[in-house]
Amino acid sequence: MAHYGIQAAVTAKTASKRSPNVEQALLSWIFENIGEKVPEGIAYEEILKDGVVLCKLMNKIKPGAIDKFASGGSAYILMENINKFLKAAQDYGVPHDQLFRTVDLFERKNIPEVTAGIISLARVACNNPDYKGTQLEKWVFANN
Questions:
Q1: Correct CATH for 18-142 of 1.10.10.10, 3.60.21.10, 3.30.428.10, 1.10.418.10
Q2: pLDDT (tens digit per residue) in 10-28
Q3: Any signal peptide, and if so, which residues (predicted)?
Q4: Which of 36, 41, 60, 87 is deepest in the core (most CB within 10 A)?
């Protein structure tokens, strides 16, 4: 969809905040933690959009954090996955103001905010002595 005027400027500014290297590092960290291969040829936001991967990640970081999530269904059900992830991340210790909004991911409104939220989760997890997962590369924290 083409954007014009202010919307085009906002879209361009948001896109300029994205870093393919950071996004790839996050995908590697996520998929190493959940024990799956990173899907090839699929955009970062598409991999995360339905919330399934994020729910799996949260359950690896804190087993049982999310009791049930759907791997398909209506937009409402998939957005609920994202909401469950966000609540579990906040319960785990990620400050609310460091998390993204559901529409930031589901409607691709602000993917840099999604990235920042996942980095905040990684920071909290990697600093938790009970966390046994893969460490996120230090340079990712330094760039955000």
A1: 1.10.418.10
A2: 445 555 689 999 999 999 9
A3: none
A4: 60
